[in-house]
Write a structure and sequence with these properties.
Elements lengths: L5 E14 L2 E14 L3 E5 L6 H8 L7 E6 L2 E2 L5 H11 E4 L11 H11 L3 H21 L15 H13 L5 E5 L7 H16 L3 E5 L3 H4 L4 E6 L2 E2 L1
Parallel strand pairs: 3-8, 3-9, 6-7, 7-8
Antiparallel strand pairs: 1-2, 1-4, 4-5, 9-10
Helix pairs in contact: 3-4, 3-5, 5-6
The structure holds adenosine-5'-triphosphate and magnesium ion.
The site of adenosine-5'-triphosphate (ATP) has 13 residues, from strand 1, strand 2 and helix 1.
C-alpha cells in the first residue's frame, strides 16, 4: 500500500479535556498516515480516544497540538469556508447512531449533503442529477424500495445503509466510520461490513473505528490506540 499517495496525515496530535479540576489527556502524540485506497481499522479500549481521534481526522474537532494534513494542507490553517468544504466534500461520516433527520425521507437525507454544498442556482440547475445520484446510491445499498420512508420506519441496518449513502453523496475522498456496526446485531453488522468492504474494493478509502477485534479484521490494516498514541 505504501506506494500509493498519503491523502490524510495526523502528526503528533494532542487532545485533552478539562472536567472541573481534572484534565484528561486523551491523545498524546498520535500519528497516522492514510494512503489512498486503504481500509484502516482503529481499535482501542473504551475511552482510549478513538472517537476523539476520528473527529479530529475529519475536521469536526481541533487538536490542541499537532497537525492534520489533507493532501498536504494543514486543516488548522484553513479558513472557515475551506474547512467547511473539506468536511462537506472531501470526507463522509458514518456514526454509530446514524444521525439521520427523521423529518426527511430516506431520499432527502441522502441528497442533503449535496444541497448544502451548492448555491441556490447550482441546486436548481443540478437537482435532477443529484436526485439520480441519490437514487442510485440507495439502489446500491439495497434500499430502492425505501426512498419515501422516514428513518424511523426503517430497521437499524437499513438506517445505517442510508447513512452510508448520505456519506457517499459528494464522492468523498475519505469515508470515516465510528462504530458503524456498534448498534446492530452481528448478522446485520456483517451486512454493513460487506458494504464497506465492497466500497473499498471499488477504491474508497476508509477509516473505521471499532472496539471489536473481529470487526477490525475486515480492514487491511489495524491501528491500535494505546496511551494516547496510535501503533
Ligand atoms: N467533550 C468531552 N468533554 C470531556 N471529556 C470528553 C469529551 N469527549 C470525550 N471525553 C473523554 O475523552 C476520553 C476519550 O473519549 P472517546 O469518546 O474518544 O473514547 P472512545 O475510544 O471513542 O470510547 P468508546 O469506545 O467508548 O466509544 C473519555 O475518557 C471521555 O470521557
Ligand atoms: Mg467512541
Amino acid at each position: 500500500m505504501s506506494q500509493l499517495p498519503v491523502i490524510l496525515k495526523a502528526e503528533n496530535v494532542h487532545k485533552s479535556y478539562r472536567m472541573g479540576a481534572t484534565q484528561v489527556n486523551v491523545l498524546k502524540g498520535a500519528d497516522l498516515a492514510v494512503h489512498e485506497g486503504e481500509f484502516i481499522a482503529i481499535i482501542g479500549a473504551s475511552g482510549s480516544g478513538k472517537s476523539t481521534f476520528l473527529h479530529i481526522l475529519g475536521g469536526l474537532d481541533r487538536p490542541d497540538k499537532g497537525a492534520i494534513r489533507f493532501n498536504g494542507r494543514d486543516l488548522n490553517r484553513m479558513k472557515a469556508r475551506e474547512l467547511n468544504r473539506f468536511r462537506n466534500e472531501k470526507v463522509g461520516f458514518v456514526f454509530q447512531f446514524y444521525h439521520l433527520l427523521d423529518e426527511l425521507t430516506v431520499l432527502e437525507n441522502v441528497m442533503l449533503p449535496s444541497m448544502i454544498s451548492r448555491s441556490v442556482a447550482g441546486w436548481l440547475a443540478g437537482r435532477r442529477a443529484v436526485r439520480r445520484r441519490a437514487e442510485s446510491l440507495l439502489d446500491q445499498m439495497g434500499l430502492k424500495e425505501r426512498l419515501k420512508h422516514k428513518p424511523y420506519q426503517l430497521s437499524g441496518g437499513e438506517r445505517q445503509r442510508v447513512a452510508i449513502g448520505r456519506a457517499l453523496m459528494n464522492e468523498p475522498k475519505l469515508l470515516l466510520a465510528d462504530e458503524p456496526t456498534g448498534n446492530l446485531d452481528s448478522a446485520t453488522g456483517n451486512g454493513i461490513l460487506n458494504v464497506l468492504d465492497a466500497l473499498n474494493k471499488a477504491g474508497q478509502t476508509i477509516v473505521m473505528v471499532t472496539h471489536d477485534e473481529r470487526i477490525a479484521h475486515k480492514a487491511q490494516r489495524i491501528v491500535t490506540l494505546v496511551d494516547g498514541r496510535a501503533r
